[in-house]
Design a protein that fits this description.
By secondary structure, the chain is mainly alpha-helical. The protein contains 22 helices and two strands.
């Protein structure tokens, strides 16, 4: 026993020396075991156990290899931005997570590698585009898809934040796209986010079960809604249940998922005055008040739906698309042209900053509109009066200064440029129409998941373009570009030595 204890101590010492890369692989290995929890309830799925255990064992082995041979070194440059320093580990973490999610589909004989990689990327980035037939998928793979979304929405680095400490992990947290902390330190912030997620998971599952959704479906759909992802256990998605209570519960969960984590903490602590003072919360209310009635009118007059049905379908579709969840009760791509136009605008806007949602984000859209409005007013005015714009965050009000305006315009310009480039590449590789390519790629980069069927029927080059779009959308573009550039710089430097 003493010899075994000494061996364990040596193994732990090796892993500690390996730095973040080995720890990332070990955490992923643990997460990869979660789908095995269905085996006691779905005995027939035992034939797929090897498909999940093999990747876990491979990642455990790689963790020890990294610990033995790859040691982290402090930056040699006098000053290096925390985001630049953290970019490579963040890209590594998400790349490793996506590969881990793809391998069970390959080892289980369900998908080829490219399609498995697409399905995994869609899950981890909380997009929800799919290439599988959910109605024929075994329960273990359904839970695997749902859990990838759930862990991806929570943020892999947030999970690391609970287990690890140090300045580097704070840099990773910021680099992953979390602009605000909820607590004084990262571990407490990560624990608060995780607690909100777990409580919401339990309450959402119970609510779905009360609405007569099967327990397994309830767990998977709650994970999907909270992560604003969109994977379902049914091909017909939420529409398969034909239930108003199920749709209302989904709307509530999607709104929770698209809300800033810090705003959720304000709600949980009943600091409602500060919550409703937030610029994003107010702007969200305005967007919903405008787009739901307009979409309902389009469905009523063009699709010839009844009044109540138009309102019901409109409310669900608007929240689903704006939150970038992608749940559906109908095929949104064949909605009346006016309703499709609104949905495309909502796909680009997206949810709140610091949430699981994608898109440009509500805060940036609000700043963009207000800054543009102020600029036009200034040009039309003959006075030299200086207007100071302000916005309210979870931790208080702040000025909308020139840097914020510049950063917002820059982000929106780059985002739209990538949509144009991605759309053209999709048309080039797939032969799709410009509209179909634009719809599918915008859905991918916005991590929305609504589809016109293109991704399920297309070729490998198109899938790779959509995969890159999903990753850019989940990590908000810049960290991906910085990570690639920094990775190349480090590689060239090592080769030079």
């Amino acid at each position: 026993m003493k010899e075994l204890s000494e061996q364990n101590k040596k193994l732990l010492k090796i892993l500690r020396r390996g730095g973040y890369y080995s720890k990332i692989l070990l955490i992923l290995a643990v997460l990869g075991c979660v789908p095995l929890a269905v085996i006691p309830f779905y005995r027939s799925d035992v034939r797929y156990v090897h498909a999940f255990l093999l990747p876990v064992l491979i990642y455990c082995g790689l963790a020890f290899v990294f610990a033995l041979f790859i040691k982290e070194k402090p930056p040699t440059r006098q000053y290096i931005s925390p985001v630049v320093s953290a970019s490579v580990p963040v890209i590594f973490a998400w790349g490793a997570a996506i590969l881990l999610g793809a391998l069970p589909f390959v080892f289980g004989g369900r998908l080829g590698f490219a399609r498995a990689l697409f399905e995994s990327t869609s899950g981890w980035t909380t997009t929800g585009l799919t290439v599988v037939n959910a109605d024929e998928l075994p329960a273990i793979f359904l839970l695997h898809r749902a859990f990838m979304q759930y862990a991806g929405g929570l943020g892999f680095i947030v999970i690391m934040g609970i287990l690890l400490e140090g300045r580097r992990i704070t840099g990773l947290y910021n680099a992953e796209g979390h602009p605000e902390g909820l607590m004084p330190n990262l571990r407490r912030t990560s624990m608060a986010i995780t607690l909100i997620y777990l409580v919401s998971l339990v309450l959402g599952t119970v609510a779905y079960v009360i609405a007569k959704m099967p327990v397994f479906d309830a767990i998977c759909h709650t994970m999907s809604a909270l992560s604003t992802a969109g994977f379902s256990t049914r091909n017909a998605n939420i529409g398969a249940y034909g239930s108003l209570p199920v749709e209302l519960i989904s709307i509530v969960l999607m709104l929770i998922g698209m809300t800033n984590f810090a705003a959720l903490l304000l709600f949980a602590s009943l600091r409602l005055k500060r919550l409703f003072a937030m610029t994003e919360v107010r702007f969200l209310g305005k967007v919903l008040l405008v787009t739901i009635p307009l979409t309902a009118l389009s469905l009523f007059f063009s699709a010839k739906l009844g009044v109540l049905r138009s309102i019901r379908d409109s409310a669900f579709a608007v929240v689903s698309i704006l939150s970038t969840t992608g749940f559906s009760t109908a095929d949104y791509s064949v909605y009346p042209a006016f309703a499709v136009g609104i949905s495309l605008i909502l796909m680009i806007i997206g949810g709140m900053t610091g949430s699981t949602a994608g898109g440009i984000k509500l805060l940036r859209t609000s700043v963009l509109i207000r800054a543009t409005k102020a600029n036009i007013a200034k040009r039309l005015s003959s006075s030299n009066k200086v207007t100071v714009l302000r916005y309210t965050r979870p931790n208080g009000a702040a000025n909308i200064d020139g840097k914020l305006i510049y950063d917002t315009y820059e982000f929106v310009a780059v985002y739209l440029a990538i949509i144009v480039a991605g759309t053209l590449l999709v048309t080039l590789f797939s032969g799709a129409t410009l509209y179909d390519a634009f719809y599918e790629f915008t859905s991918a980069i916005g991590t929305i998941g609504v589809s016109n069927g293109l991704s399920a029927q297309t070729n490998v080059p198109t899938l790779l373009v959509l995969i890159f779009g999903m990753i850019l959308g989940r990590l908000e573009m810049y960290i991906v570009f910085i990570g690639i550039a920094e990775g190349i710089r480090r590689t060239v430097k090592r080769i030079g030595k």
